Amino acid sequence: MRREGKVSRGVNQGGLDYYHKLLDALLEKNITPFVTLFHWDLPQTLQDEYEGFLDRQIIQNFKDYADLCFKEFGGKVKHWITINQLYTVPTRGYAIRTDAPGRCSPMVDTKHRCYGGNSSTEAYIVAHNQLLAHATVADHYRKNYAVSSLDIAKKGKIGPVMITRWFLPYDESDPASIEAAERMNQFFHGWYMEPLTKGRYPDIMRQNVGSRLPNFTEEEAALVAGSYDFLGLNYYVTQYAQPKPNPYPSETHTAMMDAGVKLTCTT
Prior knowledge:
alpha/beta; thioglucosidase activity; EC 3.2.1.147; vacuole; thioglucosidase
């Protein structure tokens, strides 16, 4: 819908027309649309310009894009998802390169397929910027678009989608396994839910990650906390957790190792 990735560079009317037709077809069949603004499809131009969500410029660009969507489709869409699976792009895209944009530390991928990156730091920066982008868009929507009539049933709602797993102790009689499961839940769910509910990161993340974990200003914390009307949950699997030493600062370290946990899939 945007030319060259930014609304300021023009919009693609053909793209807007396509989505209008799609939404009209859904509504004609009495299907309620839930529209996702970002499902890992960052414009390549923004990745090339400033590495996408690694740079805070993305916050304003994401807001501009969301505003275009709200203006164009707000009369047809009352349920908006800001970002799909907040955990996925920071970890798989900026720590272990299995997803776009494919960044990681050189020794994390010995086949040298990463085009750059730091697996110990970038995931935390990207996650932080995603939370701020989400909260900025949610705040903008609530203030300018959410209520279009006096009928409360027509009030729009906005929120993110979370990737969810659950973590159980590998050995329920072992205190270390019990602690590992709790740590993993904090690193996996708390990484996003603590900011979304309390405006801060979990204490165990602060302890284990230290200065590599960004800080929210007081204003940002207030913006992020409570910045959702609903949460989408994509549930995949339950895993067993047991303690494992964190190899930081080795050349093969990734942010996903900071919990100090070894995971095993349940059967």
